[in-house]
Amino acid sequence: MFVVGGRTNNVGETVALEVYDTESSEWVKFPSVQRFRHACWLLDSSLYIHGGFEQDSPNVPTELITKVDVSKFFQNSKVISNQIPNSPIENKIVYQKQTTMGKFDMGMNNNNIMIPEDRESAYKNYMGSKIKKPTTAGPQNVRISDKVIIAVAQDHDDDKEKCYKQVSIDKLQEEAKKIKQGHNFRDPNAYSNTHSLYYENIYSPFINALLKPTKEWVPPSDYKFPFKKDLVIKLIDETMKRIDEGPILLQLRVPAKIYGSIHGQYGDLMRLFDHWGGPTEMGDIDSFDYLFLGNYVDRGKYSLEVLCLLLSLKLKYPDQFHLLRGSHEDIKINRNYGFAEECAQRLGEDINDPGSLFQRFNRLFEYLPLAAVVENKILCVHSGIGSSLRLLDDIETIQRPCEVVADPIKLQHNFLLDLLWSDPEVENGISQPRQNGFKTQRFNNERLRTFLAENNLSMLVRSHECVNDGFEKSANGMLMTVFSATDYCGKYTNAAAVVVIRKNFELVPKVIYPVMNHTNNFAMEDEKSTKNGLKGLTYTGNSYNNTSSTWIDTEETLKKRPATPPRMSSKGFFKK
Question: Is the pLDDT confidence value at 327 over 70?
Fold first, then answer.
């Protein structure tokens, strides 16, 4: 990915050409063309830069078109130059434009602006006139058209003459308004594109309102849920169809981002997106696969926001954004641990009504995938492998919709319990039994080693248990636990993390810390994060001055549903 030019607030500052290498997930900087509000396109090994404003004359637009030979430009960077094609295709010269690049002469010279033969022919047929080729080069040969061509149909089977139309450039804004008018649902069968207006009208209201990465999210004072029920029903129905079309065992690519249990902590999710990048148009959704390991609901007060945002992102990015089922995505659990109460209070609905959002969400949960394999090397599940799972093929024998059965009758019932509830043994011998009512068995290092070997895997990544640093690597590097909600149940001062799997399969935890009450607004770097070689910030201040207020933490509710003890390690655990 290339970031060319731009503008800063500092007068005279030189803006670099930044290149993102997807192999190493790193940025590299080079000298660049000093322009902003320009257009760029890449054709084989040539990068073209058209128009915009020069840094030296920011109020006067330029007509210059600059061609950069990236094979020469990046010749001193072996990692990038090896990925650049160096065999330019033969194109027909339509006109020429000469520019001077000042100090930088690294493949950016006199420029030949070209249009391939077949494109010229298509252009002639559409415009109904011939392209006149100038005999001399110079500024007089370049003229910006006052017309633009826009696409008006999405289906490739449509009549080609009806797919495009020509409009005046001063009418372009009006055409954009026509596209965005209204939020009426359209028949999805009328569009073959998965990102059709029908789906966009469903997910856009949620994403526009909820996807706002910030370090200072303030819970709404009225605790009202801002979306209409019929829109949420559409979101649930269409996302469930999309999920059901996919496998129960996902196959992911690297690089990838892995999120653990969120438990209704919408504020922590926004902080993670703010600190470490999120699935936004300006974020890293085009560079990473996103995987969430379940437990989106319960314990916290904002499960509805978390669910609606994640389902919307799944609908928008079906091939890049993935959601696994967790132990709390089960009606027998979330009826008692907060989600049912939230739906009843915020939506004013009868949770026993089959048409309620509570019931509809739980029907969707029974279709969620149960595991994901990253590049045939790393298995990701919500909890563990228990004692029954032997092969990855076992997971694919589970039929959807799948109900969690406390007293297993079929082998598949055991598989499901293991994936959602089984925990690893604690290495220092401290082991706290779970009071979940399910017959599950902890797995030890030898059991994990055997399972990984039999399936040609190198590692297991899971969530389910709160860990002090937001992540914990154990079992001699074979196991990683990740937890993505800070200050669990308002009782523990644990951090939250997202784990990045790089292209070389290195796992890099990215951490945020609880927001504490404080009289001053400031950010400080946590000493513990520096020791771990991580950059994590603890934000304190009145803007979001009571993290525990987003947990269900009253004395009555804690007695009814006490916090599950966090995973203990040799480091111990911090408790308020």
Answer: yes
